[in-house]
Specification:
With 253 residues, the chain is an alpha/beta fold. It has a single domain (3-252), classed as TIM Barrel (Alpha-Beta Barrel). The protein is built from twelve helices and nine strands. It has helices at residues 19-28, 68-72, 78-81, 99-107, 128-136, 140-143, 153-162, 179-186, 195-200, 202-205, 220-229, 239-252, and strands at residues 3-7, 32-39, 45-47, 113-118, 146-150, 167-172, 190-194, 212-215, 233-236. The two termini are 13 Å apart.
């Protein structure tokens, strides 16, 4: 069965990478959450997509120039929050989550995987791989359900060095020659392939479909097509829709 992962939670309906968005995705029945992490000036892990604070908060500049407590005090960018159809002013009370808060949340859902993307193709944080492995190890009830992903191959190699059992996934947005060679040599658990790349080169990828998580799949027809193809997982902004379509298909089977 193709699994459904909530992309930054349920970011098509709720603000991305917030506890609210994660909770709504979990309530919808996802098998996984996809989140992004960055490291603050005082080496705390926060959950945010961008390397800078500008887009979703009223902060300016790189996350790495702020301490965790400074970031927690930043107000959200109201125009970003209010752009959602379901906007409620109670959302403004949300805080930028720490990774610890997300790990604790997921610990209450024993069948849910947590995909942590390291945005190291944008910004190199000193020793982030070793620090992240050590950080997650403090949550043994979740550790075995964590998948580390990145566009940046050196990050995956360093993660493997620090944890020989880490579940790793390489994010790609173009065809690669001999995917099985990367999977075998790097010990990858999966490849994460952009949806446009997958569809444009569907015959290239089809052989490895059971090792592919495809991102970011939001179109109704594409969701249904990938469910029929039976890829490993779909990463989507609308996990509730994907789960509905999957249930619909099993009911018709």
């Amino acid at each position: 069965m193709t699994k459904v992962y909530g992309h930054r939670g349920m970011m098509g309906v709720y603000p991305e990478n917030t506890l609210l968005s994660f909770e709504k995705a979990l309530e919808a029945g996802v098998e996984g959450l996809e989140i992004d992490v960055h490291m603050t000036k005082d080496s705390e892990f926060i959950v945010m997509h961008d390397a800078t604070l500008n887009r979703t908060t009223k902060g300016i500049g790189p996350i790495s120039e702020y301490t965790f407590s400074e970031i927690r005090e930043l107000p959200w960018n109201h125009s970003y929050f209010s752009s959602f159809a379901a906007y409620d002013n109670s959302w403004e009370e949300e805080k930028i989550p720490s990774l610890a808060e997300v790990l604790k949340l997921v610990s209450s859902y024993p069948d849910v995987a947590l995909n942590i993307e390291l945005k190291t193709y944008e910004y190199i944080y000193e020793n982030i791989e070793e620090r992240l492995i050590d950080y997650v190890a403090k949550f043994p009830e979740v550790k075995h359900r964590v998948i580390y992903s990145s566009f940046h191959l050196p990050t995956l190699i360093r993660l493997r060095h620090y944890d020989r059992d880490a579940r790793l996934a390489w994010i790609v947005n173009q065809p690669i020659s001999h995917p099985e060679d990367y999977i075998d040599i790097l010990g990858l658990e999966a490849l994460h392939v952009g949806v446009e790349t997958f569809l444009e080169h569907i015959y290239h990828w089809h052989k490895w479909k059971r090792l592919l998580r495809v991102w970011t799949v939001n179109d109704k027809d594409t969701l249904k097509q990938l469910l029929d193809i039976k890829v490993k997982a779909i990463i989507t902004d609308y996990p509730d829709r994907a789960i509905f379509y999957r249930c619909e298909r099993y009911a018709m089977a």
